[in-house]
Structures are given as structure tokens and as C-alpha cells.
């Protein structure tokens, strides 16, 4: 479950090539010499998919072993390159978050950008690192996971309560035996007491 | 399906009765006539009513078949890219075809029956005309139903073809092949997009974020990707499903907690029982201890009495010995 890259592009509605606004890539699992070509490749694919995504649409495209998820909102397009195991919904919620963050940070200045902006945006980099685990990005997934854990814990609790119940059952039996035995003891003592008064 | 012909046999009969009554001279002749005629009209009446019965059966069957065709038409129109009720449609089509063939055969039987009747008895012209009209009517209705079925099947095949072409477009759109193909693709893409636009109307923006997308929604509807619609619905649907799961998990957890509380309460009762048993045994043991203590005291204080008793025994022994010795 890996995110390989996150990109923010400005998509023009007239269909020309989108302008790259911010990128964060994790190409550490490729060999050293392949990294630059992989980066170029990612940029190219992102541009193409961004060009094809109409505004206000979410799109997921399968490309070799990656899924490219893109979300275009009012001309600002954010894309994520994830592998097949990453849940689609989490990826889109992550893209939403990145989009909101970008708009909060940069306001509307991206609309005038014409050239690719290669300056790193630290939020994107740390987002890439933090959200390798889809549960971080998607609150729903996190909640579901925690609820499942709680359910498991509760099941264990119930099992131990059942064991406690069994022990309490045996204690009840033993205590009732004890009380019967003590009753017999009392009667016996009274009997011996009564018959020795003659002597 | 209001039948254009009406069965006025009853009217005719009542009219003839009244006419006979009015023409009173023939009443005496009519008695044997009636008794003679009355077995007879049941015969043609029965065969005529048999003809009528068959015709009404066929009419009913045609009506049912046309209802089924209407349902099929609705299904075929409704079918979209996702959840296509193919099996249902095919079943329904097969059923309708069987019905229509059966109705055809029944209609041809009716035709032969009618011809037989015409040849058999010298019926009046009215009856012949009536029966031919009935047959023609049923035939035309059956033909209308068959034509409707044809139309529905054509629309269905058109739908399927449109789906296939859309699927092909979007499978070619995926970035699987070399980059060069993608430059060639956009030229051909806009025309196929324009045709699905008319078929695909709303349903897409309502499921997603309406607050954001209301402004470009009109622009969206013009250039809508059919493949994206199920994807976006999938997104919101998956969110809805996830929320549903979370909600059901939370309810389950609540149930588990209640279960736990019940069990702990029951075990609390058990603990109380144990407590009572222990108190009882404590009381018993306490009583026994006291009894034994008294016993001990009695035994320890009994020595004095025992000396006295032994003294008495020794006294009796000596008295006894005095007597014997």
C-alpha cells in the first residue's frame, strides 16, 4: 500500500498541457539511475491524465502497476500515483485534503502560473510520508479499524467474564457443600453433647 | 384493451322473446318450437360460446402478453452500464415469445374452428360476419403485440451496442499503450462523447459534492464521461457503505456491552449466593463450636460427679459383698 507520487497541477479548460504546481515523489524503490527517468515519466503521465480530466470530476486510471487517481476542482487538479492495494476512497479523501491545504496556503496565486513550479512544498512531502498508510488519510478507515479492535477486545472480555462465571459456579457449589457439611457437624456435636449429660 | 365488438346475444334473445310475445299467434307453435329449439340453440350456442370462450381466452392472453412487453420495454429502457438485468430481460423475452407462439397457434385453431362451424351449420350471415370480425380483430392485436416486441428488442440491441462502443472508447482511453496513441485518440474522442451525452442525463452530480459543483454542473453535463459516472457514484457509494458499516459496528458494540452487563449482573447474583452459603456455614460451625465447648466443659467439670458416682458404686459393691460374703 504505497503512494509513489502526489502532484498538484493547474488544468486549463481549453485542453492545453497542464502546468505543474507542486510535486512530491517517492522513487526510492527504483534503482539510482532510473530515478530521473521515472520522475519524467510520472510528470508526463500526470500531465496527460490531468489534461483528460474535466473539471469537477474524479477519475481513476490504471497504468501498468499503478493506479492514477485525479481530482479536478475548478481547474486545480490534484493527482496521486498509488498502487493497486491502496483503497480508492482513501486516495480521494487524501486528494481532497491536499487540495484544501493547497488552496489555504497559496490562495488563488496558482491561477496565474504559467511555468512549471519545481519548488518543493513541504506539506506535500510530509503528506506523502504520512499517508503511506491509508488509515491516516481516511478517517472512516481509521474509525472502522479502531472499532474492529474494540470489538476484538470486547470479545476477549466476554470470554474472560464467561470463565469467571464458571469459577463462580464452582465456588457456589463448594460453598453449598461446605454449609451442608458444617450443618452435619453442628448436629453431630449437639448429639454428642446431649448423650453425655447422663455421664 | 376495449374490444370493438360487443356481445349482444342476450339483447338479441330478449328482443326475440318480446317479438314472439307480441306476435302472439305463434305462441302455441312456439311451445314445441321452443322446447325443440331450446336444445338446439344450446348446441350452436354452446359451440358459438365455445368459439366465444376461445376468442376471449385468446384476447386475455394477448392482453397479458402486451403487458409483459410493456414491462420488458421499461426494463430495456432503464438498463444502464451498471446493474444490467440481462438475465431478467432474457427470461422475459423468452416467456413473451413462447406466449406469442402459443397465441398464434390458438388463433389458427380458432380460425379452423370458425371455418368448420360455417361449413357445418347454415348459419346466418350475421354470425359469419361476427366470427370473421372476431378472428381478424384478434389477429391484428397479436400482430400489434409482436411489433411492439420487435421494437423493444431493437431498442435493447441498440442500447447494448451503445454500451459496447462506450466501453471500447474508455478502455482505449486508459493509459496502457504507448504515449503516441494518446495523441491520436483525442481527435476521435469528442464525437463519441457527444452521442452518449444525450443518453446520459443527470444522476451524476447529485451523488457527489453539490456545493462545489453546482456552478460547473451545466458545463459538466455537456462533456460528461460515462465511465466516470459509475466511478463517482462508486466513490460516494463506497463512502455510504463505509459509513453504514461503521454504524452497524457501533450498534454491534452496543449490543456486546449490554450482553456483558447482563452476564456481570448474573454473576453478581452468584456471588451473593456464595456469600449466603458462607454465612450459613459460618453459623453452623459457630454453633457446633459452642456445643463442643460446652461438651468439653461438661466433661472437664464431670470429674467431680464421676468420683461421686464411683463412690456410690463402690458403696453398693461393698453392700453386695456384705450380703454374699
Protein topology:
The complex is a heterodimer of chains A (199) and B (325).
Chain A: E1 3-10, E2 19-25, H1 35-52, E3 57-63, E4 66-73, E5 76-83, H2 88-106, H3 122-130, H4 134-137, H5 139-195
Chain B: H1 9-22, H2 27-37, H3 42-78, H4 86-120, H5 125-173, H6 179-188, H7 190-199, H8 210-213, H9 217-222, H10 228-324
Q: What descriptors fit this protein?
A:
heterodimer; A: 199 residues; alpha+beta; Beta-Lactamase; five-stranded antiparallel beta sheet; 5 helices; 5 strands; rod-shaped; B: 325 residues; 10 helices; VAMP-like protein YKT61 (chain A)
Descriptive report:
- Chain A: Keywords: Cell membrane, Coiled coil, Lipoprotein, Membrane, Methylation, Palmitate, Prenylation.
- Chain A: Its main location: membrane.
- Chain A: Residues 7-141 form the Longin domain.
- Chain A: It is found in: Cell membrane.
- Chain A: It comes from Citrus sinensis.
- Chain B: It comes from Citrus sinensis.
- The complex is a heterodimer of chains A (199) and B (325).
- By secondary structure, chain A is α+β, with helices and mostly antiparallel strands.
- Chain A has one domain (3-163): Beta-Lactamase (2-Layer Sandwich), CATH 3.30.450.
- Helix content of chain A is 54%, strand content 19%.
- Chain A contains five helices and five strands.
- Chain A has helices spanning 35-52, 88-106, 122-130, 134-137, 139-195; strands at residues 3-10, 19-25, 57-63, 66-73, 76-83.
- Chain A has a five-stranded antiparallel sheet, with helices on both faces.
- In chain A, a hairpin with a 2-residue loop joins strand 3 and strand 4.
- Chain A is rod-shaped and about 120 Å long.
- Chain A starts with a strand and ends with a helix.
- The mean pLDDT of chain A is 82.
- With 325 residues, chain B is an all-alpha fold.
- Helix content of chain B is 84%, strand content 0%.
- Chain B contains ten helices and no strands.
- In chain B, helix 3 (42-78) packs antiparallel against helix 4, helix 3 packs parallel to helix 5 and helix 4 (86-120) packs antiparallel against helix 5 (125-173).
- Classes of the chains: A alpha+beta (199), B mainly alpha (325).
- At the A-B interface, helix 1, strand 3, helix 2 and helix 5 of A face helix 6, helix 9 and helix 10 of B.
Amino acid at each position: 500500500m504505497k503512494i509513489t507520487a502526489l502532484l498538484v497541477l493547474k488544468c486549463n479548460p481549453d485542453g492545453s498541457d497542464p502546468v505543474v504546481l507542486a510535486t512530491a515523489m517517492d522513487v526510492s524503490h527504483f534503482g539510482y539511475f532510473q530515478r530521473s527517468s521515472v520522475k519524467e515519466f510520472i510528470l508526463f503521465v500526470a500531465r496527460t491524465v490531468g489534461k483528460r480530466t474535466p473539471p469537477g470530476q474524479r477519475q481513476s486510471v490504471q497504468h501498468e502497476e499503478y493506479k492514477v487517481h485525479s481530482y479536478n476542482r475548478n481547474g486545480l487538479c490534484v493527482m496521486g500515483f498509488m498502487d493497486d492495494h491502496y483503497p480508492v476512497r482513501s486516495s480521494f479523501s487524501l486528494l481532497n485534503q491536499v487540495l484544501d491545504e493547497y488552496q489555504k496556503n497559496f490562495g488563488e496565486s496558482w491561477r496565474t502560473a504559467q511555468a512549471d513550479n519545481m519548488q518543493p512544498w513541504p506539506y506535500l512531502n510530509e503528506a506523502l510520508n504520512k499517508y503511506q498508510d491509508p488509515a491516516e488519510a481516511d478517517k472512516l478507515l481509521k474509525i472502522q479499524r479502531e472499532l474492529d479492535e474494540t470489538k476484538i477486545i470486547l470479545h476477549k472480555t466476554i470470554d474472560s467474564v464467561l470463565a469467571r462465571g464458571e469459577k463462580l459456579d464452582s465456588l457456589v457449589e463448594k460453598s453449598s457443600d461446605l454449609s451442608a457439611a458444617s450443618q452435619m457437624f453442628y448436629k453431630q456435636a449437639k448429639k454428642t453433647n446431649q448423650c453425655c449429660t447422663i455421664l | 384493451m376495449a374490444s370493438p365488438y360487443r356481445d349482444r346475444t342476450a339483447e338479441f334473445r330478449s328482443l326475440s322473446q318480446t317479438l314472439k310475445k307480441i306476435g302472439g299467434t305463434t305462441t302455441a307453435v312456439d311451445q314445441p318450437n321452443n322446447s325443440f329449439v331450446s336444445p338446439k340453440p344450446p348446441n350452436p350456442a354452446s359451440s358459438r360460446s365455445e368459439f366465444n370462450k376461445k376468442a376471449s381466452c385468446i384476447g386475455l392472453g394477448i392482453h397479458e402478453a402486451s403487458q409483459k412487453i410493456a414491462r420488458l420495454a421499461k426494463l430495456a429502457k432503464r438498463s444502464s452500464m451498471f446493474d444490467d438485468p440481462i438475465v431478467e430481460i432474457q427470461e422475459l423475452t423468452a416467456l413473451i415469445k413462447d406466449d406469442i407462439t402459443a397465441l398464434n397457434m390458438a388463433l389458427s385453431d380458432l380460425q379452423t374452428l370458425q371455418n368448420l362451424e360455417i361449413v357445418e351449420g347454415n348459419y346466418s350471415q350475421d354470425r359469419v360476419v361476427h366470427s370473421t370480425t372476431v378472428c381478424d380483430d384478434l389477429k391484428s392485436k397479436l400482430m400489434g403485440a409482436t411489433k411492439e416486441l420487435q421494437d423493444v428488442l431493437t431498442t435493447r440491441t441498440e442500447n447494448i451496442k451503445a454500451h459496447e462502443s462506450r466501453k471500447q472508447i474508455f478502455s482505449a482511453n486508459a493509459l496502457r499503450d504507448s504515449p503516441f496513441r494518446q495523441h491520436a485518440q483525442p481527435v476521435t474522442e469528442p464525437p463519441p462523447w457527444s452521442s452518449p451525452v444525450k443518453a446520459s442525463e443527470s444522476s451524476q452530480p447529485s451523488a457527489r459534492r453539490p456545493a462545489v459543483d453546482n456552478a460547473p454542473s451545466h458545463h459538466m453535463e455537456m462533456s460528461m464521461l460515462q465511465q466516470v459516472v459509475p466511478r463517482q457514484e462508486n466513490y460516494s457509494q463506497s463512502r455510504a457503505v463505509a459509513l453504514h458499516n461503521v454504524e452497524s459496528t457501533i450498534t454491534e458494540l452496543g449490543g456486546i456491552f449490554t450482553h456483558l452487563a447482563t452476564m456481570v449482573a448474573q454473576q453478581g447474583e452468584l456471588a451473593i449466593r456464595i456469600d449466603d452459603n458462607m454465612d450459613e456455614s459460618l453459623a453452623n460451625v459457630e454453633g457446633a463450636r459452642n456445643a463442643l465447648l460446652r461438651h468439653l466443659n461438661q466433661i472437664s467439670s464431670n470429674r467431680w460427679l464421676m468420683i461421686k458416682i464411683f463412690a456410690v458404686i463402690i458403696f453398693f459393691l461393698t453392700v453386695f459383698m456384705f450380703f454374699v460374703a
